């Protein structure tokens, strides 16, 4: 059984029934009220192919921009993998609980360090030499990512559905690299970069997190 934090009448109440395991179907069912990823959701993004979670920690790259590193962590229970969904750079924040339409430009704020998921064409990633992805302590248009839903029929960003994140300034996609492992703790962290093609390693799924119903 999966758990969530439920928003009700302005209070957060621990909710253990947002996802029910179906023993016969070997799947789980989300409560309809909490199906969408919304403004100010704090979530973990799992890579479709590798199963690791988008992650950041208080260390910086020794090459490239020297900004805070972003990785993909195999462990699902690390608090350093939560990112807050925000609106694009220079735009007002939308009300908590507002569903995110497919195609929306968003920012992802790392909860632990208050830095934004960021990329830039000027720097290469340390291992694969793709476009570097970092966690940036400032704020500019390099923080903007376009939400690309996998299915053309999808209207909103839903939990447990496949999406891609396309960097607005450079057009490249957020990616995790199998076989490109950093020698840092916690162990097993994979390089995250931005690439010009799409596939399973560029596909992400919103899983664990704090989700909200629609504003009342």
Task: Please give a structural write-up.
The protein is an all-beta fold and 216 residues long. The protein has a single domain, classed as Trefoil (Acidic Fibroblast Growth Factor, subunit A) (Trefoil). The protein is built from no helices and 16 strands. The strands form 3 sheets. Strands 5, 6, 7, 8, 9, 10, 11, 12, 13, 14, 15 and 16 form a 12-stranded antiparallel sheet that branches. The protein has a two-stranded antiparallel sheet with strand order 1-2. Strand 1 and strand 2 form a beta hairpin. The chain is globular and about 45 Å long. InterPro entries: MIR_dom_sf (IPR036300), MIR_motif (IPR016093). Keywords: Repeat, Signal.
Question: TL;DR?
Answer:
The protein is an all-beta fold and 216 residues long.
């Amino acid at each position: 059984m999966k758990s969530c934090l439920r928003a009700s009448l302005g209070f957060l109440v621990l909710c253990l029934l947002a996802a029910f395991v179906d023993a016969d179907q070997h799947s789980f069912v989300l409560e309809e009220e909490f199906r969408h990823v919304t403004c100010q959701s704090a979530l973990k993004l799992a890579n479709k192919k590798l199963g690791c979670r988008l992650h950041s920690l208080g260390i910086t790259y020794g090459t490239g921009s020297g900004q805070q590193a972003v990785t993909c962590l195999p462990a699902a229970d690390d608090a350093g993998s939560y990112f807050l969904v925000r609106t694009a750079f220079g735009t007002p924040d939308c009300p908590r609980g507002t569903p995110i339409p497919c195609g929306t430009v968003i920012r992802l704020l790392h909860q632990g360090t208050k830095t934004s998921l960021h990329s830039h064409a000027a720097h290469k990633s340390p291992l694969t030499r793709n476009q570097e992805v970092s966690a940036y302590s400032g704020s500019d248009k390099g923080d903007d990512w376009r939400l690309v839903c996998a299915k053309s029929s999808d209207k909103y960003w839903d939990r447990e559905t496949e999406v891609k994140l396309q960097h607005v300034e450079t057009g490249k996609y957020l990616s995790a690299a199998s076989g490109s492992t950093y020698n840092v703790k916690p162990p097993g962290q994979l390089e995250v970069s931005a690439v010009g093609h799409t596939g399973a390693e560029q596909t992400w799924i919103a899983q664990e997190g704090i989700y909200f119903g629609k504003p009342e």
